[in-house]
Amino acid sequence: MKKTILLFCSLLQISFALGQIKNPPKDDIHFLFTFKNDTYLLENGFIYNLTSPIKLKPKEHNLAMKEFNFVSNGITGYLKNASSGIVYSFDGINFKRLDNSFDFKSQFRSFSFLHNNIIFDFGGYGLHSFKNILTYFNFAKKETELFNQVSSINECPISRDRMIAQYEKSTLFIGPGHGINVDKENPYENASFINDYWKFSFQDKKWQKLGEGTINANYPYDVLYDFNNHSLLISDKGIYEINIKDNLLIGYPNANIDIVKSLNKSNTLSSITYNKTKGGFYLIIDKSISSSEVLFVKKADFLGSKKTYNKLYNQSKFNWIYFTFFGITFLIFLIYIFIRKKTLIKIINSKMDVLKIELKNEDFMLLKKITDSHPDYINYSELLDLFPEYLGYESKKKKIRQSIINIEEYLSQKTKIKMPIFIYRKNIEDKREKQIRIR
Known about the structure:
Helices cover about 25% and strands about 35% of the residues. Residues about 1-20 have low confidence and may be disordered.
């Protein structure tokens, strides 16, 4: 009783401090969403612009649905029924129905997002089962269809709804959600958190498991998908910003849990929205047994100023095996390429026909003599025999030096072989004898 009184007093203080915006009936249809700079409330048959007091005047919306998901590309907004099938566009004033379909009742509490400006949904609950399917709205056919994927059933996430999720650069990231733990007895009577993380590539249409990790939260909870492009998990055990892509869990230890405990529970996932322009949250709290209250709470007042940073999940063993396998494969490939890479002698031998034509005859004959002896060194004295007998010893040595210069210049220019082409040494048995070979 004492805790109840303290909670009521706390909420009363917040209400006076921040200002009540509206008092909707507690158990009626409520849905909050933010589009561009404005935040809207859907209540029964009316829509209210909460951002501008002038526009707070109710307007009939005539929507053919009662539970909603909202997504936006920043220019056009799309409101769809929470179980898929019915889709409207929204320009900030009017709704326009786009589908030629009906309420599917199959994907309640799914994750709705835009990929290439096409509305997609993952997971959800409906028709007595949790889902792990991807569906999309076909604008041309005005129908919702199943999106085909390459991954087998065993390579896909376990079915879930109300999941943590993120979409970035043609990749869908899926985290913990409410679903069936297949390892438990009586699984359909014991739905619980599914604590794993996955990503789906739209490029190759395949799923990949990232890892596993638990978050200190309990059911029921809310998830905002448009907070810093991350998910914001809101439960009465804590509030967490979740970046699946970068494996980052940001905690808010000083968050105002009293507000979280009072969030309206009649329409889960619709009682709070974040307005970046206003720098805070619009939310619906239960004020009394019969009424609710719409409040605006500044970001710092709701989340607090302190943050903690931790890893979100431990990388899957499967991924270590996967990356190790491909790492070893890539290393073997590099070694293979290195071994196959042409050596200098192979390059020269492959061009012998061209060299015979383009080099001077004495230069070519000297090069041929050296290549034929490869990989052994050849004595300079053996090269002297390539030149006419009437030339003296010093003249022949000079001819050898000039031929070597000619050969190196030609190969470096024509074949882009880096100099030096040759290496030299003293004869091991006779130090007076100079030797040469191809590098």
